Each structure stands twice: as C-alpha cells, then as structure tokens.
Amino acid sequence: MNKLLTITEPDNIKKLPSVYFPSDKASRTAHIGSMKQYDELYRESLLEPETFWLKYALKYYWATPPPKNSILRYNFDIRKGKISVEWFAGGKTNMCFNALDRHMQNNSQKIAFYWEGNYPGDRKSITYESLLHKVWFINSAQYLTSLFSPVKISDLRAVCHFGQSLRYLGISKGDRVAIYMPMVLEAIIAMLACARIGAVHSVIFGGYSADSLAQRIIDAE
After folding, report:
1. What is the DSSP annotation of 38-96?
2. 95-219 sits in which CATH class?
3. 186: pLDDT confidence band, cut at 50, 70 and 90?
C-alpha cells in the first residue's frame, strides 16, 4: 500500500533571509555604495551611453584613446547591413597592462588573485608584482622608473618567462592559443600572457574528449 510522506518544518528552525544587505562599512568602501547610486548610474548609461562609457573607459590605460565619436557603434537591423557591435573603435590598449602594470606603482604587493581548490586548505594567492613577473618577467628597477611613460616592449628589457616563452615558440599578435588546463592559477598566467603579446586565447574545458577539443581548436580560427 502506497503512503504519502509529508515533510513539515519544525517551528524552531531559523529561516534565513532571502535578501542580504551589506554592512555600513562595506557600503562606505564599495565602488557603488547603494541601490540608489546604482540606479543613477544605470539611468545615465541609458540616457547618455557614449558620455557614460567614455568617462569610465578613460580611467584605464590607453596607448591610443578612443575617439569620442566611436565609443559605441551597432547595427541590429539586418535590412541595414551586417549585424555588428563595436566598442571604442580606433582605440588601442592592452588588457594585461590594465590588469597588472597599472597597479605596480602603488599596489604591487597587494593580492591580485585568490585561487581556491577543491579541497580544504587547497588555496593560493599571488601579488600583482609576482603575477606580472610570471606573465612577463622584467627588470623591476628599470621598469618602475619608466612606468606610465611612453615605452616600448623592448625598452622593458624583458627576459624569458611565460609571455616570452610564447614568443620563443613563434606566437605573435593575432595568433590563436588554445588553453587546455584545469582551473588552476597557471591558467590565469597563460591568459594574461596571451593578452600581453596580442594573441587570441581560447579557454577549453578540461573534460572534453579529443574530438571535442579538436573542434574547438579549429573553430578558434
């Protein structure tokens, strides 16, 4: 005979709130301290998108700043041509520089990345300086004196490390690099090294079969 099992919650079980609010201290130190401030920024991004995005884009490093009239271009109407979206057309920057180098002057010893593994205690952290050295090993003293001034890669007197190792293998700007690695700190180093030299990286899930892996490598072209 089938019986219907009914599960009820005891009255003494503490129910957790569905919404968590930040502490006053966290709100004061956050980039966006309240929902009101968030709503104001969101409204600004809708009403004046080019002004809004240019204002925040210019907080980052640009070798060539984007022209004011090319912040955002798009076409979603197939009748008017190819579907396309362009951000900051004409601008030139380096994502690795923005992620690491611009923090070297004041925050070189701060933690740039926390890594948590699958097991308790399986964790690592790395500073901006250490991460930069693993991505693109440099002469620190010479580098710091030239930071934020117009320099070329050759001026940094870089010695062989991950980014330089890619170059040694013949990888250059525009080449595709497939990153077939587990979720480890070294995967971040590989991605940043690709960005450093202008290579396009494609992160591939480590559990794919050989056929699936091959297809994604081909698709990267």
Report:
1. HHHHHHHHHHSHHHHHHHHHTTS--SBPPPGGGSEEEE--GGGSS-EEEESTT-B--HH
2. alpha beta
3. confident
